[in-house]
Amino acid sequence: MNPKIAIVAGSTRTGSVNKKLAMEAARRLGKTDVHLTLIDLVDYPLPLYDGDDEVERGIPVNAMKLAEQINRQDGLLIVSPEYNSSVPPLLKNAIDWASRVRRLGDRPVQPFKGLVVGLASVSPGSGGGMKGLEAWRPVMRSVGAEVITSQCAVPNAGKAFDDETGLAEDSVRMRFDALLESLIDVSRSLARTLERD
Question: Which residues form the NADPH-dependent FMN reductase-like domain (predicted)?
Fold first, then answer.
């Protein structure tokens, strides 16, 4: 079975190094047998999550669309910047909203339940965004995802990429490829049996 895997970057900033790493992941996964989807948060603008807002207005259409897209996947690669040793609010807010979706049409859903999640980041600092990746683990587990052990934090963003191989350092390329391979393998073995459109 060819797993369905999506990639989402936690930044929409022009020139974001994490978007660049997400595109590198797409290039590499595009050479495999996976069914690949790119999720761009620009396409899913959402208000800040507020419980009162949800009660008064319901779940926004873009949260429903995002949840539907996630619900179709077996795996998800999160490529996330680190903000103050934690997660970026843009992506956290999108996940908070999507996690509130319980029905799509006449079907009950839990968009993240059983979803296999891989984590990657790139940062100007020497830690490569490692603290942010560790902060994602309890968040994704709390919504029902299976977070794989492999992850890849890419340090020194200014020197991390080249024009020929995408990632400049052999050791980083090996870690990134190991993450992608693990994401594919676990997504294939734990492929969700949820009904999809």
Answer: 3-157
Domain count, the chain: 1
User: Using CA atoms, how far apart are residues 47 and 181, in angstroms rounded to an integer?
Assistant: 35
Cβ atoms of residues 25 and 7 within 8 Å:
yes
pLDDT digits (tens, 9 = 90+) for 124-153: 999 999 999 999 999 999 999 999 999 999
Residues 42, 112 contacting (CB under 8 angstroms): no
Mind listing the pLDDT tens digit for each residue in 23-72? 999 999 999 999 999 999 999 999 999 999 999 999 999 999 999 999 99
pTM given for the model? 0.94
CATH number at 101 reads: 3.40.50.360
Q: Please name the amino acid found at residue 9.
A: A
